[in-house]
Amino acid sequence: MATVAVTIPRMLADLVGGERRFSIEAGDVDGVLGGIVDRHPELAVHLFDESGELRPHVSCFHNEAFADRASPVKDGDSVVVLQAVSGGITPRGR
Amino acid sequence: MGVVLAIGTMKGAWFAHRNGSAWKTDGPSLKGWQVNTFGRRPDGTYLLTTGSSWYGAAIHRSHDLRDWSQIVAGPAYEEGGDRKLEQIWTLTEADGSLYAGVAEAGLFRSGDLGETWEPVPGFNDHPTRPRWEPGLGGLTAHRILVDSRDPSRMWVGVSAVGVFATEDGGSTWELRNRGIPAAGSPEDAEPDVGYCVHCLVADPDDAETIWRQDHMGVFRTSDGARTWERIEDGLPAGFGFPIGRDPVSGRLFLVPLESDEARLPVGGRLGVYTSDDRGDSWRLAGRLDGPGYDGVLRDAMAVDGLGGVYVGTTSGRIAYSADSGDTWAELPGTFPRILSVHAFVE
Predict the structure, then answer these.
(1) Cα dihedral sign for B178, B179, B185, B190?
(2) In B, residues 67-106, which contact A (CB 8 Å cutoff)?
(3) Which end of chain A has fewer CB atoms within 10 angstroms, the N or the C?
(4) What is the pLDDT of residues B153-198, one digit of tens each?
(5) Does residue B136 belong to the interface with chain A, where contact is any CB pair within 8 Å?
(6) Considering the entire predicted model, what is its pTM?
(7) Which of B331, B258, B266, B325 is nearest to B292 (CA)?
(8) In chain A, whose CA is at the least distance from the CA of B54?
């Protein structure tokens, strides 16, 4: 198990008391994501859709590169969850 | 008694407290989040729902309209299934339970004040479900009506499917849309699905009477939605989204828009129309300062039960009447695109 520095988007941090940066102990990126949800269960619905995959407009970077969820992590690594620069209002409106 | 107006927008929620003609507005709460609707639990706790173009849909609770916390086990479709829970558009209390109407269209029930939710299979897996199609606003269960005298009787509006009714507490549902033209179908066609209901409001003293702002016009039923009649006398257009009823005066309110293609205020001035006679005829109640080309979405009209009527627009303006529609004023300031307004009496 490695200790990884995690950063989450501000909008999600606002839901969990403002905690934007914290550490997670895990063996791979998938474990880091699971650790985020274990620490803050509210975030599960925002990170993952019904398929269990990251939502289409949520990006995850491991050491500043697109993350492979199966990639192992080591002490001092960083995992950053980002709100992708995409999306916005859909043509549906309401 | 004070009134607080909850304002849900594309970028958060605001809460306007009215004291006579003066307003004090707090917010934003859930800054940056799309706030779709509001509700209140039987224990008085406030609820709101959020959506996002990036993240998931959720319900949040607050005791004071300031500090909000997200409910972890909100409505959700089965993991690995083919349905996506995109938005939560309405919350309704019925006989101690809470119901949520969502997109993709579905109904969820909570028996523990909203902390956990379960699907309503008789609705979500209705035999017609494979033929449900979305309207422009998605495939959306957006309005839930409950017979206060017999909460086992409920009506749910789904765009663009139609009005469903249950007489057994949600176990079984039937479509009730006779008399409504189906959007995109020949006038005399009577398909079982394909009705683009935009909003519903019921007579609290007679649940059999329901008024309906539909894509295809304004309608009324007096037999629990089994049959509908068109009621547009005096309206400049039949198209629109919200419809409301002030319980003090019994007046109905709606906001006509020019045609489903244009979706603009008739004549370039947004007008609220009212009916004094249960929809038999309509007249102009008030206009927002114009010219104006904003619209009003289906959840953006509210009444407070004290004669207050509130209308929030797509350009962020709020018009209100404190006297059942006789006179109108505007709330100070503008907000992001308004999706919903709800009035709570404190």
Answers:
(1) positive
(2) 70, 72, 74, 76-81, 83-85, 89
(3) N
(4) 999 999 999 999 999 999 999 999 999 998 877 777 889 999 999 9
(5) yes
(6) 0.95
(7) B266
(8) A57
Distances (CA, A) of B231 to B147, B198, B228: 23, 15, 9
| Alpha helix segments (H runs only) across B93-183 | 121-124
* Residue B84 in tokens: 């996506």
Question: Quick one: A66 exposed, middle or buried, by C-beta within 10 A (0-12, 13-18, 19+)?
Answer: exposed
Question: CB distance from A64 to chain B under 8 Å?
Answer: no
Are B78 and A90 in contact (CB < 8 Å)?
Answer: no
| pLDDT (tens digit per residue) in B252-308 | 999 999 988 889 999 899 999 999 999 999 999 999 887 889 999 999 999 999 999
**Touching check for A85 and chain B: CB below 8 Å?**
no
ipTM: 0.92
**Cross-chain Cβ contact B298/A94 below 8 Å:** yes
Residue B93 to residue B145: CA distance in whole angstroms: 9
B247 close to B267: Cβ distance less than 8 angstroms:
no
DSSP B127-146: TTGGG---BTTBSEEEEEEE
Q: Are residues B55 and A90, on separate chains, in Cβ contact within 8 Å?
A: no
